[in-house]
Specification:
It is a single chain. The protein is 31% helix and 29% strand. Strand 3, helix 1 and strand 4 form a beta-alpha-beta unit. Helix 1 packs parallel to helix 4 and helix 2 packs parallel to helix 3. The chain is of the alpha+beta class. The N terminus is likely disordered. A four-stranded mixed sheet has the order 1-2-4-3, with helices on one face. A four-stranded mixed sheet has the order 5-6-10-7, covered by helices on one side. Strands 8-9 form a two-stranded antiparallel sheet.
Length: 210
């Protein structure tokens, strides 16, 4: 059996999701494959967010396609948030009942002078503890306040507990990129199939809280 996917005793189950979300402000399409190769096709209309999503693919080894349009002529807030919402929905859908996964992930990523720690749990209980201190208002045209808004949306709709800690760093781009890289590697760890209990829910209660 391929340990990268859960098997029902016959064919492996493909862990993937496709989600469309439409509002008066944005249109977001997400295709996600958890057992991927790091393929990225991300076009949100926000170049810096595309760059961060590409990091998520490369270091998380998920395949991700995000196509989004929105009212970026006003600012990037709605599109940034709605991409986080839709990606969170796709993660939740692709993981299903969480059967077989390690569930917990943790990684500390350096990027030059920056060092960021991420710990996460697909607990079914949304919670974000956010400890970044980003020194500038913008990286290029991207408002750095939107990093937190992205993760709030992602956490709430993937039903994840997420802790982000900045251990060092003075360069805004480095801090944010280290965060996404650490998140990607922690995600990769958490969604990996545990071969010792590939058919079991990873909870002593026998269910991940909805």
């Amino acid at each position: 059996m391929n340990d990268s996917v859960v098997s029902n005793g016959h064919a492996p189950l493909l862990r993937q999701a496709m989600v469309d979300r439409q509002t008066k402000e944005t249109s977001v399409h997400v295709e996600l494959v958890l057992d991927g190769n790091g393929r990225a096709d991300n076009h949100t209309g926000i170049p810096f967010l595309d760059h961060m999503l590409d990091q998520l693919c490369s270091h998380g080894l998920v395949d991700l396609r995000v196509q989004a349009t929105g009212d970026t002529h006003i600012d990037d807030h709605h599109t940034n948030e709605d991409v986080g919402i839709t990606l969170g929905m796709a993660l939740d859908q692709a993981l299903g009942d969480r059967r077989g996964i390690h569930r917990f992930g943790h990684f500390v990523a350096p990027l030059d002078e920056s060092l960021v720690e991420v710990a996460l749990d697909f607990s079914g209980r949304p919670h974000l503890s956010y400890g970044l201190q980003i020194p500038t208002q913008r990286v290029g045209t991207y408002d750095t306040q939107l990093v937190r808004e992205f993760f709030v949306a992602l956490v709430n709709h993937s039903r994840m507990t997420l802790h982000i800690r900045q251990l060092d760093g003075i360069n805004s781009h480095h801090i944010i990129e280290a965060t996404f890289k650490a998140f990607a590697r922690a995600l990769r760890m958490a969604i990996a199939i545990d071969p010792r209990r590939s058919q079991q829910i990873p909870s002593s209660k026998g269910v991940i809280q909805a």
